[in-house]
Design brief:
With about 500 residues, the protein is an alpha/beta fold. It is built from 18 helices and 18 strands. Strands 10-13-14-9-8-15-16 form a seven-stranded mixed sheet, with helices on both faces. Strands 5-4-3-6-7-17 form a six-stranded mixed sheet, with helices on both faces. Helix 8 links the parallel strand 6 and strand 7. It binds nicotinamide-adenine-dinucleotide. The site of nicotinamide-adenine-dinucleotide (NAD) has 28 residues, from helix 7 and helix 8.
C-alpha cells in the first residue's frame, strides 16, 4: 500500500471532490452505476475465471451469486435512482399548522467498504452500488484471501469509474488497520465478528457509524413433509444452498438441520441420495463443488472433523484432500452439542443433522443460541411458521427455500445481535449510505399565540390537544383561544 502520507493526501482529495458537489448530481451517480454495469458485462468471463482461480467456483455459481445478482441490483438502482433521491413528504402535528416537512437524502461523504473473500465480487460491489447511488466517494478494501478477484477489482474496475471518487486498495489486515486510522463518514464491513470488533473500536474514535455484515450458525428446521415431491424439493434446496454455494462458505448457508426423530431416517436417506445425484460418486471430479479458500480454513475444517465423536457421526462423505483444498460434501448425524462443529460457524461443506423429539423443540433450540443471520424452515404447518416468526429472532426467516432472500431487493439484508447490525440491498443500500435530513418549512401566515409565555393552565391544555390531535386539535384551539388568552392561572 502507498505511504500513510500519500493515503492521507488521496483521501483529502476525495473529500475535496465530494465537497465540490459533483457526486450529488444524478447524472454523475448514474454514470458510475453504468460504469459498474459495463465492468461486469465487459469482464464477465474474466470474473468467472478469477472466481474459479480463487475459490474453484463453477461459472454458473459465479453468475448466479455474483455477476447476475449485481446486474439485477444495478438495473434496479438505475431505474429507481430518481425516485430514491426525491424528497419524501412527511406529516407534521397540528401545532405546526400550515407547515410542510420532508426527508431529503444527502450523501454521507467518504465511506470505507471492507469485503470478504467468499463472494469477493458480489460483496464488494453490492455495497458499492448503494454508496455510489447515494453520491458518496468510496474506498473499497477487498479481501487478500481472494487475490485474483481483488486485483481485478483494483486494476480493471477503476477504469470504468471516476478515479476522483472511487479507490480500491488491496492488502491484508495490516492495510485494513492502516485504513481504520483515518476518519470516515461510514464504514461498511463484511466479515468475521473478531475483525468487526476491531472495526467498531477504531470507528468509535471518530464516532463513525458502522454497518457490520457478519455470520453465525444459520439453522434449518425440517418438518415432516408428507408429499415426496415437497420432500425432494426441500432437500434439493438445502443441498444446493449448502454444498452448491461456495462449498458452504457463505454467511447465510445452512449451518445445521433440525429434524424430528420419527422423520430423521427418511431425511438422512434422501439427503444422501440427492447429494450423490448432484455431485456424483466422486464429488472431487465434479466441477460443481468450490474449493476451500486456503490452507488455514482447510485445517480449521479438518480439525472440526478430527474430534472422534464428530468423526463417528459422519454418515456420508468425509473425504478430504489437503493438497487440493477439497472437502467432500459431508453429512453428520447428531454430533455432540459441545463439539466445535456445533458451537462455531462451520463455513464449509459439513452438514450436521440434529434429531429432536418433536419439531416444535426447534424453537427452543434456536432461542438458546445467538441470533442467526438467517433461519430456514421447511414446513407446511402455519402454526410452526407463525411460532418461528414470533418467537425467534434473526436477520431473516425463509420458508421452504434457502439463500433466495439474498437476491431480493425489496427486503433488507442484514443481521441482528451477533449476526450483525445495519442492512442493505435495493433501496436499503441507498438509505444505508445516505443521511435522511429532516427539512421543515413554516409559514408566517398563522401562529399560535399560546406557544409563547406568559404561561397559564389553558395554554397547557392547548399544547396537549395540538400535540395529540390533528384537525380536532385545531378546532379546540380556536374554541379555547379566548379563555386561554385572558387567564393567568398556573396550578403547579
Ligand atoms: P475477516 O473478518 O477475516 O475479513 C474481512 C475483511 O476485513 C477483509 O477485507 C480483511 O482483509 C479485513 N481485515 C482482516 N483483519 C483485519 C484487521 N485486523 N483490521 C482491519 N481489517 C481487517 O472475514 P472473512 O474471513 O473474509 O469472512 C468470513 C466471515 O465473514 C464469516 O464469519 C462470514 O459469516 C462472514 N460473512 C458475512 C457476510 C454477510 O453478508 N453477513 C457475507 C460473507 C461473509
Amino acid at each position: 500500500m502507498e505511504s500513510s502520507k500519500n493515503l492521507q493526501g488521496d483521501l483529502e482529495s476525495m473529500r475535496v471532490f465530494h465537497r465540490s458537489g459533483a457526486t450529488k448530481e444524478i447524472s454523475w451517480r448514474k454514470s458510475q452505476l453504468k460504469g459498474l454495469l459495463s465492468f461486469l458485462e465487459d469482464n464477465e468471463v474474466d470474473i468467472m475465471k478469477a472466481l474459479k482461480q480463487d475459490l474453484g467456483k463453477h461459472y454458473i455459481e459465479a453468475f448466479r451469486d455474483e455477476i447476475g445478482t449485481l446486474i439485477k441490483s444495478l438495473n434496479l438502482a438505475l431505474k429507481s435512482l430518481k425516485t430514491w433521491m426525491s424528497p419524501q413528504k412527511a406529516k407534521l402535528p397540528a401545532i405546526a399548522l400550515l407547515s410542510t416537512a420532508e426527508l431529503v437524502s444527502e450523501p454521507l461523504g467518504l465511506v470505507l467498504i471492507f469485503s470478504s473473500w467468499n463472494f469477493p465480487i458480489g460483496l464488494s460491489l453490492e455495497p458499492l452500488i448503494g454508496a455510489l447511488a447515494a453520491g458518496n466517494t468510496v474506498v473499497l478494501k477487498p479481501s487478500e484471501l481472494s487475490p485474483t478477484c481483488s486485483s481485478l477489482l483494483a486494476n480493471t474496475m477503476p477504469t470504468y469509474l471516476d478515479g476522483k471518487a472511487v479507490k480500491v486498495i488491496q492488502g491484508g489486515s495490516d492495510v485494513g488497520e492502516q485504513l481504520l486510522k483515518h476518519r470516515w463518514d461510514k464504514i461498511f464491513f463484511t466479515g468475521s465478528p473478531r475483525v468487526a470488533q476491531i472495526v467498531m473500536t477504531a470507528a468509535a474514535k471518530f464516532l463513525t457509524p458502522v454497518v457490520l455484515e457478519l455470520g453465525g450458525k444459520c439453522p434449518a428446521v425440517f418438518d415432516s413433509l408428507s408429499s415426496s415431491w415437497d420432500r425432494e424439493a426441500a432437500v434439493k434446496r438445502i443441498l444446493v444452498g449448502k454444498f452448491g454455494t461456495c462449498a458452504g462458505q457463505a454467511c447465510i448457508t445452512i449451518d445445521y438441520v433440525l429434524v424430528e426423530k420419527k422423520f430423521q431416517p427418511i431425511l438422512v436417506d434422501l439427503m444422501m441420495t440427492i447429494t450423490r445425484q448432484m455431485f456424483g460418486d466422486n464429488p472431487q471430479e465434479s466441477n460443481c463443488m468450490a474449493r476451500i479458500v486456503n490452507k488455514q480454513n482447510f485445517l480449521r475444517l479438518k480439525n472440526l472433523l478430527a474430534d472422534p465423536a464428530v468423526k463417528s457421526s459422519i454418515v456420508y462423505g468425509g473425504k478430504i484432500d489437503e493438497q487440493n483444498l477439497f472437502i467432500e460434501p459431508t453429512i453428520l448425524v447428531d454430533p455432540p452439542f459441545e463439539s466445535e462443529l456445533m458451537t462455531e460457524e462451520i463455513f464449509g461443506p459439513l452438514l450436521p443433522i440434529i434429531t429432536l423429539e418433536k419439531i416444535e423443540d426447534s424453537i427452543e433450540f434456536i432461542k438458546l443460541r445467538p441470533k442467526p443471520l438467517a433461519i430456514y424452515a421447511f414446513t407446511k404447518s402455519k402454526t410452526l411458521e407463525r411460532r418461528l416468526i414470533s418467537e425467534t429472532s434473526s436477520g431473516s426467516v425463509t420458508f421452504n427455500d434457502a439463500i433466495i432472500q439474498y437476491a431480493a431487493d425489496a427486503i433488507p439484508f442484514g443481521g441482528v445481535g451477533e449476526s450483525g447490525m445495519g442492512r442493505y440491498h435495493g433501496k436499503f443500500s441507498f438509505d444505508t449510505f445516505s443521511h435522511e435530513k429532516a427539512v421543515v418549512r413554516r409559514s408566517f401566515f398563522s401562529d399560535f399565540w399560546f406557544r409563547y409565555p406568559p404561561w397559564n393552565d389553558h395554554k397547557l391544555q392547548l399544547f396537549r390537544v395540538t400535540y395529540n390531535y390533528d384537525y380536532l386539535g385545531i378546532v379546540l384551539v380556536i374554541l379555547g383561544l379566548k379563555r386561554a388568552r385572558k387567564s393567568s392561572h398556573c396550578s403547579i
